[in-house]
Design a protein that fits this description.
Number of domains: 1
Radius of gyration: 29 Å
Number of helices: 8
Helix content: over 70%
Order of helices and strands: HHHHHHHH
């Protein structure tokens, strides 16, 4: 229901903002501004995307799960998509997602409420549980797998007595 409301409200907000901004600075300037934000967004996506990929690779090389980096990558993907979408409201959201401080705020909110993200087999609790990741990295337990046969003393004595008779 929330998604339906967003699909309905966002275009209405964008149309309203186009009318207001177009009336204030002119139609041509408004269209030019829309194209410039798309180009700027593509450039930011490329630069920050490469940076996040490097951070992700460093974490993986250090045998750490790059949860934060993956989240940042997802935010950058959304930011790039909404910046390519014409509109001032979506551009504002996109530029906010390019700022590490805003992404950090969203990450903390998601981490605090992972139950909101348990849909279709995706478990936000598992994905964002950084404490479990740290415990697993510090774990010094050694697991040895083996097969065994249980032998009881009574069985061994009775079978020896049967063979002696």
């Amino acid at each position: 229901m929330i998604i339906f409301a967003l699909f309905l409200m966002i275009p209405l907000i964008e149309i309203y903002l186009f009318i207001v901004v177009g009336g204030a600075i002119g139609t041509g300037t408004t269209l030019l501004l829309t194209v410039v934000t798309a180009i700027l967004g593509a450039g930011l996506l490329k630069a920050q995307g490469i940076s996040v990929m490097r951070e992700c690779q460093e974490k993986l090389q250090n045998n750490a799960f790059p949860a934060r980096e993956m989240f940042d990558g997802l935010c950058l993907l959304v930011a790039g998509a909404v910046l390519l979408t014409p509109g001032f409201f979506t551009d504002t959201i996109g530029f906010l997602l390019f700022t590490p401080m805003f992404r950090g705020f969203i990450y903390e909110q998601v981490k605090l409420r992972p139950e909101n993200f348990r849909q279709g087999g995706f478990s936000g609790a598992t994905f964002f549980d950084m404490e479990a990741e740290k415990r697993q990295q510090r774990s010094d337990e050694t697991v040895i797998e083996a097969e065994y046969t249980e032998i009881t003393v009574e069985k061994d004595i009775s079978s020896k007595n049967d063979h002696q008779k």
